[in-house]
Amino acid sequence: MDRLNPADLAVSGRLVLPHGVVEGTVTVRNGRIEQILPTGPQPAAVRRIDAGAKYVLPGLIDSHVHFRTPGLTHKEDWAHGSRAAVAGGVTTVIDMPNTVPPLFDPAAAAAKAKMVGESSLVDFRFHLGVDPERPELMATATPREAVSAKVFMAGHLCAPHVARTEEQLRRIFATAAEAGIRLVLHAEHQGVFDLLDRWRAGATEYRDYESLRPRTGGIVAAASVIRHVEQSGANAHVVHVSTREEADLYSAAAADGLPITFEVTAHHLSFTDADLARYGSRIRLSPAIRQIGDQERLWEAVFAGEAATLGSDHAPHSMADKTRPAADAPPGLPGVQELATAVFTGMRRHRPSQPVDEQVLLLATLMGANPADLFGIADVKGRLAEGLDADLVIFDADATWSFKPSDIQAKCGWTAYAGWMFTGRVMQTIGRGEVLYDAATGSFASPAGRWLDARNVVKEGIHVG
Fold first, then answer.
1. Would you say residue 203 has pLDDT above 80?
2. Which residue is catalytic, options 77, 123, 131, 313?
3. Which residues partner with 447 through β-bridges?
4. CB neighbours (10 Å) of residue 407?
5. What is the mean pLDDT of residues 285-305?
């Protein structure tokens, strides 16, 4: 123990390391993890946090948020969104591009980073947007600006730029393959939905929505995505997979050697179509909430390691927007604060006999190591490892609690999980060695989030997973 040169911070507890859970201590110096030490004599440190029997996870990564800046900040902004993130143990986010204006041009990324950085508690990256009419723009991105690009194959009010034709998709996949950009896909087929809209009347009740945006849209889109990946060689990450057929298709494609991964969201793991009568437009989502058999298959994909990431698809709307007439209520809900706790609660309920150590390790993998690997930030984020940023989460796996209105940090002020009894709670969130959130006091740090650089793991040929 070096008493003359103490660490800035020492955090002791049940450390969730990449290979498993061990008792030990993490020491921090200059915002980085300096050492990971086994239980024993405590190192000298200026500050000390003893988590006792609680878990110490790596800071979580949510690679699917809509913080709505610029142009839609009446729905959400980075000050509120990043407070919600750290209250949920998330220290890094990757923001989606469907803002006003959308982030199509990589040259605009620096201006956006400057705009949001002054109010962000979390470190951040951006997914570039793909303009279906100008896919070549993504080829001008450097790794500093973006290593991934979002494609909407179906749209809605907040996502009007849709790749509708096979020729547009062919150009997008070919461009991405050549540029080494990972495509992030909202994979539903707009043509299927348009066909149904011409055949049936619009929604008159909230529960009508799922029948107008059915599973067939995702299944048809999955076949298209797999075909274009086969033909182009592009890397694809499909977000918010909602049906058992899609999970089967993407898992089979990955097992066949295609560079396809997919994400599952907390809301598709938490709600089914049987909840629509109770929750109404609060769980109107895109893709829609599906059936119990779909939910069970998605849980299987999570536990089996078929799903690569967990994302919140944090997409808040004001309650005034959500309570519009059924035909006009927009899809989306707040979720970054709820994500880790909702998923962990589901893990305990679906597999109560599975060791908790295994479940927290799985959570850390799906919200830490895997998104860090996929999006080129594994050199600094995603794991408890020496030399990486000291992003840590103190997690009480035994805590039971429910949201109070005062707990909600999203600007919209509501949560679809009101009244739920959760298992597991984030007690403290630490970013680069500084406490960003403390549940005991309800306090938050001052914004100091950074725009992260990244490696182009696709172009460098680095294996992910």
1. no
2. 313
3. none
4. 14
5. 97
421 burial level (CB within 10 Å; 0-12, 13-18, 19+): exposed
pLDDT at 465: 59
Does the active-site annotation cover 321?
Answer: no
- Name 319's Cβ contacts closer than 8 Å, sequence gap at least 6: 412, 413, 414
Among residues of the chain, what percentage have pLDDT more than 90? 86
- Look up residue 281 and give its two tokens: 């437009």
Type of residue found at 263: E
- CA–CA distance, 457 with 235 (Å, rounded to integer): 10
Q: Would you call 293 exposed, middle or buried from its count of C-beta atoms within 10 A (0-12, 13-18, 19+)?
A: exposed
Rounded Cα–Cα distance for residues 295 and 12 (Å): 36
- Residues 21, 175: Cα–Cα separation, whole Å: 42
Across the strands, what pairs with 149?
A: 128, 183
Alpha carbon distance 244, 296 (integer Å): 8
**Alpha carbons 426 and 428: distance in angstroms, whole number:** 6
Bridge partner residues of 438 (DSSP): 428, 443
The residues pairing with 129 across neighbouring beta strands, listed in sequence order, are 150
Least Cα distance to 368 among 7, 61, 30, 34 occurs for 61
Q: Which residues are CB-contacts of 358 (< 8 A; sequence separation ≥ 6)? A: none
Alpha helices in 235-380 (DSSP H): 244-255, 266-270, 276-279, 292-304, 319-322, 339-350, 356-364, 370-374
Tokens for 38, please give them.
């086994």
Average pLDDT in the chain? 95
Contact present, 416 and 267 (Cβ < 8 Å): yes
Give Cα separations from 218 to 24, 151, 213, 242, 250 (angstroms).
Answer: 45, 14, 9, 8, 11
SS3 123: strand
Query: Is the sign of the CA dihedral 115, 118, 120, 124 positive or negative?
Result: positive
pLDDT value at residue 263: 98
- Give the integer Cα–Cα distance in Å for 332 and 316: 6
Q: Residue 113's pLDDT is what?
A: 97
Average pLDDT over residues 350-374: 98
Write the pLDDT tens digit of every residue in 254-289.
999 999 999 999 999 999 999 988 898 899 999 999
Decide: 268 and 298 in contact? Cβ < 8 Å.
yes
Return the beta strands (E) in 131-279 as ranges: 148-152, 182-186, 236-238, 260-265
Joined tokens for residue 282: 């609060």
Do residues 223 and 229 make contact, with C-beta atoms less than 8 angstroms apart?
A: no
Q: Which residues of 66-81 are buried (b: 16+ CB within 10 A; e: fewer)?
A: bbbbbebbebbbbbbb
